[in-house]
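STRUCTURE REQUEST FORM
Protein name: TIGR03749 family integrating conjugative element protein
Source organism: Salmonella enterica
Requested output: structure tokens
Priority: standard
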Amino acid sequence: MMRLFLLLLFSLPALATEVVRWEQIPLPVALHVGQERRVEVGKPVRIGYPAGLEGKVRLQSAGGNVFLLAHAPFPPTRIQLRDTQSGELILLDIQASENPSALEPIALSYDAPAPAGKQQPAPASDEPLPVLLVRYAAQNLYAPLRTVEALPGVTPTPTGLNKQITTLLPQQPVAATPLAAWKADNATVTAIRLQNRSGQRIDLDPRELQGQFIAAAFQHDWLGPHGAAEDTTVVYLVTQGSAARALLPEPKP
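Status: completed
Returned output:
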């Protein structure tokens, strides 16, 4: 699954390890210049990287961990982590920016393989419904259809929103456009595209979202300047009932 920046109704301790599930889709990893970040891979790996990163970042692998230290800002760039025992590849899309805030370590988690020649039934998930809904929506938008995990009880539903939303992030120069929605029981996840309309980078903070949400998740936690390849992302809103009742009303013309 793609990495998501999820806000639920609890807070995490500062610098807690961020657990990210590897599901054969490149994982974005943010770096801050001058600050080393550790990725707990859990297995010995060799690092492959393009020549364009020479001198911009230090990459080290030791004891099942990868240590990344950016020396200069650079745009999203893909690196490869190859398991030295199985040969499996793990792909990371790393990018660096000037930012003094601290970044937590990342730990990768993996699906346990089923025994050879034996089909194991999928166990019932003990993850909260908001997490399952966000993952399902993200896979429907970004992952190949054959890889979308079935989620019993989920059905598509109209978003019930205007074509453009101005009240979701009113303090940021972004255009918000509803894409799709799915519901399960009385919970709904709504995917909304966010596009930067300014010439400056925008760091996205879920605390700035206006409305009554059970959970909210950004596909990426920043937007590049308008016109850049990174100027657009998606926010997933999990609400009780329709998102139309959870968002602030649009101003009257």
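Reviewer notes: The domain at 24-109 is CATH 2.60.40.1080 (Immunoglobulin-like). The chain has two domains: 24-109, 129-246.
Form closed.
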